[in-house]
Amino acid sequence: MAKHILLIEGPDARGLIYHVTAVLFNNRCNILKQTEYVSPDKRFYMRTEFENGTDLDREKILSELRQRIPDEQVKFRLDILKKKNIVVFCTKEHHCLSEILVRYMFSEINANVLAVISNHNVLQPFVSKFGIPFHYIDAEGKTREEHEAAILKTLGIYSPEYLVLAKYMRILSPGFVTHYPGKIINIHHSFLPAFIGANPYRQAHERGVKIIGATAHFVNNDLDQGPIIAQDTKDVDHRYSAIDMARDGRDVETRVLMKALKLVFADRVFIYGNRTVIL
Length: 279
Known about the structure:
Structural class: alpha/beta
Helix content: 25-40%
Strand order of the largest sheet: 7-6-5-8-9-10-11
Low-confidence stretches: none
Strand content: 25-35%
Order of helices and strands: EHEEHEEHEHEHEHEHEEHEE
Mean pLDDT: 92
CATH superfamily of the largest domain: Formyl transferase, N-terminal domain
CATH class of the largest domain: Alpha Beta
Radius of gyration: 21 Å
Number of strands: 13
CATH architecture of the largest domain: 3-Layer(aba) Sandwich
Distance between the termini: 23 Å
């Protein structure tokens, strides 16, 4: 029996939950999980997971929802709960990529890894062990626009739903990001908004921090400023060198990225402005 996800967001109003559950009941759907949230500015969010014993008439349900909730500011999204098709980007560091690929091979991630793209070929032998296509797209001697055009051409082969930047050490241009709005997930080796940009562990060491961290976020047009999905930290002290921080930081990065992917691929993350709501 197929499971479905209904996501709703928009201005809060009386009776929203009643109308949604009534439509699902009338269409012989069985609600398995439901979570709601109303923000301080009175914006309503709801995630409903349900099953249906017959072929679901998606358009009929959406039409009935719109009849009951005619406010055009209320957005509906109805999908089958399924694995997301993704392409993973990497450069030279393997820790985040390897976690994704191992979990993928053991069906522990709700995604199909269609391919890996890199601006270096260092990790190609590793990726080949999983039987996943590896595309080495060198940036040397190319403008950023030329390099990204080559990447977009390759992505056209796969039509992924999400791009995962698993320690991809290049900044994507606003032009590139517009092709995948709200669909690019990055892991940043810092507890944002601190230590933005390059060499965060060196910055952290010089500042004498007492915690290090990592942040998974959606990519937008501002460097490391996109909506945050997940964060975590680890205590450190004066005995840690920048190298020690980077070593332990890799564990935090991997853990945070996998948490973020689990949330996003389960359709639990709403983007509103530069924030996320997670249900």
